[in-house]
Specification:
Belongs to the pseudouridine synthase TruB family. This protein is an alpha+beta fold. The chain is built from seven helices and 16 strands.
Length: 345
Amino acid sequence: MAESQAAAVSSSTLKIDTVSISETAETASAMAVTSVAAAIAAAARTGSEARVSKAALAAKLLSLSGVFAVRKPKGPTSAELLNRLKEKLLAAEMPSPEWTKRKKQTLKIGHGGTLDSAAQGVLVVGIGRGTKMLTSMLSGSKRYIAIGELGKATDTLDSTGKVTEEKPYDKITQEDIEGILQKFTGNIMQVPPLYSALKKDGQRLSTLMKRGEVVEAKPARPVTVYSISLQKFQPPFFTLDVECGGGFYIRSLVSDIGRELSSCASVLELTRTKQGPFTLEEHALPEDKWTIDDIAQCLEHCSSLLPAELALKKSKPEGTHEQVLSCEYITLNETKGEDDGIKTL
């Protein structure tokens, strides 16, 4: 009797457990379906928000307009650095063409005043309507810290070239250098280097030189040196602080100083510390700050540094349509008309 009752209870419990398991499975399945649906909906919302965000980012990029400065390191050419900046600005994925109406616009970006690949420092960049202001940056003043090396001449007039001549320098004193600097101050005539961005028959002199072609030196041309001082002299090295106008070559200056001292000299290191109102320490953006937001903030700040006649009015914000970007850069050389042009990237 007891065993029969126990069996009945056991049977009843088994049925209850079976029903519970079944109900639990159905509930879990329903919850899973609900969870998946919620996840899909959330993903859809996120995707939509991302597309809106990307469209807003594209609009903000195209609204950038003005002039700012970046910090150029040693190694890349000015054009290569500009390409790197462009790539960073366009790194954010733009909205898909299927999402909304297309609106084709062009992002213009350029630099004013080429720095040699071995040089570092301030590189002024124009974006949007700011590219039209770059010519004024070329004619404005620039400041450099240059380290020269006595007793060694190279074909490029700096440390990147082949040594073409060596002369003694042991009798040259600090007073000797300071005594000749006045000859290189004010309005003077200067022969530009053969390795330069100046052109002959549409080609850069430096390109022709690298091909081994015979290139005649450009005639001396008028340039301006506002100030020049000797900061340090530790033979064979000497450090100069130079403020000059557009079209001036520090490499030619150092070479001419060596020749004036009855020796020879070439540039070991070159840093542009100032161009126009932009200084290396205060205004030049390092590469980790090459973002749309940082540049927008920099443009806002830098607009107050420019003369009133060059200041740009704020651009009207673009709508949140998709921006199909085509990029161009404008590279202006030290001599207006020598190498001006727009290159499509």
